[in-house]
Design goal:
single chain, alpha/beta, Rossmann fold, 6-stranded parallel beta sheet, 14 helices, 46% helix, 13% strand
Length: 298
């Protein structure tokens, strides 16, 4: 159900998931992250009196203009158990009235995936033909409305990135929504290396060997932190502050004028090295399984 409005997607998921749970009753539903299906499946399960456990519970950007933030708040408000990526996420939940006994700090399952597959990352087909060299190119991903829906903002952002890249190649896997806007606005930069959205193994190979990543994504900031790659986030808020406080990420905001000083800092070799947050060690899923086993035995 990739098409349709937020409401249409939510309704479709709820109808289909209710049919699934009626046909195959469950003792507990495990939902992950902050996408539309996270919220929709939580609501369906609770209306059928089934317990819900939320992986990545307690993450907050405090920006309710983001659909993901609404999904997080609604899911956490009705969940029974919470598996958190950081101690701060648990503190957020407690401030919202969740009892500590329902919160389990397990780490980051997305990093489980990253570490499991890191040895299998694959060089993209264009890597050699574009003559890319390790640590001598940038990767950018931009898709959020604040950055791509206004033609002047999008053009200014891309121009600032290119002007401050020190002549290094800039690789841009383009989100379909962003590509549509660029075509509609007539925005084109010959020196920008555009590619279609990439598979997980190829994209993370690209990130792992980049000089830095410039993004408005949340998940990428976690991956760059673990891989030790400098990251600049073009957003005014983040639900993953640990990537800034502990990791390699810096929150630049959406003002394109913030790009030049950040790039100078990087080029001068004074970007922070960062560290890996506690329990981002590839063992989060096993901790979740242990807790679920204990809950089922209770």
């Amino acid at each position: 159900c990739g098409g349709g409005t937020q409401a249409e997607q939510t309704a479709y998921i709820m109808l289909k998931f209710e049919q699934e749970l009626v046909a195959n009753p469950a003792d507990l539903v495990l939902v992950v992250g902050d996408v539309t299906s996270t919220m929709a499946c939580s609501i369906v399960a609770k209306k059928l009196n089934i317990r819900v456990a939320h992986v990545e519970g307690g993450i907050r950007s405090n920006d309710r203009s983001m659909p993901e933030e609404i999904n997080r708040l609604l899911t956490d408000s009705i969940s029974d158990y919470f598996f958190t990526t950081t101690p701060e996420a648990g503190e957020n939940l407690q401030r919202e009235g969740i009892h500590p006994s329902k919160i389990y700090f397990v780490g980051n399952t997305m990093i489980d995936t990253l570490l499991k597959h890191q040895a299998s990352f694959r060089k993209p087909v264009f890597f050699d033909s574009w003559q890319l060299q390790a640590k001598q190119y940038f990767v950018i991903t931009i898709h959020r409305p604040a950055n791509v829906d206004d033609p002047n903002q999008l053009k200014y952002l891309l121009r600032e990135i290119l002007d401050n890249s020190n002549g290094m190649p800039v690789v841009f896997p383009v989100h379909p929504r962003t590509r549509k806007n660029m075509e509609q606005f007539g925005i084109s930069f010959p020196e920008l290396l555009l590619t279609d959205p990439m598979g997980y193994l190829e994209f993370n190979y690209l990130v792992q060997h980049a000089r830095a990543v410039i993004t408005d994504s949340g998940g990428i900031t976690e991956e760059t932190t673990v891989m030790g790659i400098p990251c600049m986030t073009l957003r005014n808020s983040t639900e993953r502050p640990e990537t800034c406080v502990i990791g390699t990420n810096e929150l630049l905001g959406t003002d394109p004028r913030a790009i030049a000083p950040a790039m100078k800092k990087l080029m001068d070799g004074v970007w922070k090295k960062g560290e890996i947050p506690d329990k981002w060690d590839g063992k989060s899923a096993q901790r979740i399984i242990t807790v679920l086993s204990e809950l089922s035995a209770a």
